[in-house]
Amino acid sequence: MPRIDLHIHTIFSDGTYTPEEAVLQAKKLRLVAISITDHDSVAGLDRALAAGKGMGIEVVPGVEMSSDVGEDEIHILGYFLDWKKGDFLRQLERFQAARANRNQKLLKKLDGLGMGVDYREVRKLAPRGVISRLHIARLMVEKGYVSSIGDAFEQWLNPGRPAYVQKMKVSPFDIIGLLLEAEAIPVFAHPFLSHRDDLIPALIKAGLKGIEVYHSAHNPRVVAHYKRIAQKQHLLITGGSDCHGEAKDKVLMGKVRVPEALLIGLKKAKEKMKCSTPT
Ligand code: AMP
Ligand code: MN
Ligand code: MN
Ligand code: MN
Description:
Blueprint: E1 3-8, H1 19-28, E2 31-36, H2 45-55, E3 58-69, E4 72-79, H3 88-112, H4 119-125, H5 133-142, H6 149-157, H7 172-181, E5 185-188, H8 191-194, H9 200-206, E6 210-214, H10 220-233, E7 236-239, E8 258-259, H11 262-276
Parallel strand pairs: 1-2, 2-3, 5-6, 6-7
Antiparallel strand pairs: 1-8, 3-4, 4-5
Helix pairs in contact: 1-2, 5-6
The chain binds adenosine monophosphate and manganese (II) ion (3 copies).
C-alpha cells in the first residue's frame, strides 16, 4: 500500500534535513507524497516543491503554527497553503519576531539559572531557520546541563517550568482564520499531546477541517480514539511522523504508516475551498 508522511520539519525550522534531503529520504523510503510543515516558516517550500518534481515525489506545501489556550499548546497544520496570498507572509513575520523575542528572554532565564547558552551557538544550529526550543534543548544536552532533550523540556522548558517563556498569546481560532485566508486546510496537529479534545467542536466552528490521527506520539488506541472523533465530526484524517531529521532521538520519517488515500480527501477539500473563494 503506497504511503505518505504529511508532517516533516527541515532546517528552515527545527529539523536537520534540507528540503532536498527530506525529499531524497522520502524517495529512499518509497513514500509517494510528503508535506513539509516547518514551524512558522514557508522558507523551504519552493525548494521542496522543486526537489519533489525532480525526484517524482509529491510535495504538499504546509506549515505548522502554535497557539495557546491557557497553559495548553495547540498546534495547527495548514496544508496546500497559498502562502503568497493576502497578508499571510506579513503575519508570519509577526510570529517570527515574537519567537525571536521569546528566545532572547529564554536564554536570559537559562543564564540566570546557571545554564548559559550563547545565542551565536543557537544560531549556528539554525543558520537559516526559525529558532525553536528544540535547538536550545539540544545545546543544553551538549553542554551537559541535562541528560536528554526530554529532560530539558520536562525540567526547564515546558510551560510551568523555570525557563519557560511564552511566545505570544494567540488563540487557535485566530490561527485557523489566518490559514483559511491563505486557502490552507487547517488540521489539529497531534491532538493527543494537547489533551484538549474538548476544544474540537469550537475549532470546527472556526473552520478546522481535519485532525492528525496518525502521529509518532499516537499509539494504536489513541489512533482509534481520534479516528472515531474524525468520523463523528466529519473531519478529514491526516497523518505524519513529525520528523525532525536527526534533531530528535530517532529519525522518524516513514515510521508512522499513513495511507496515500488520505491525500485524496485533503485535495478535494482544497478544490472545494478554491471554488468557494471569490476571485
Ligand atoms: P517552540 O516552537 O520553539 O516553542 O519549540 C517547540 C518544539 O520543541 C516542538 O516543535 C518540538 O520539536 C520540540 N519539543 C517540545 N517538547 C518536546 C519534548 N518533550 N521532547 C522533544 N522535543 C520537544
Ligand atoms: Mn519542532
Ligand atoms: Mn507540533
Ligand atoms: Mn511538528
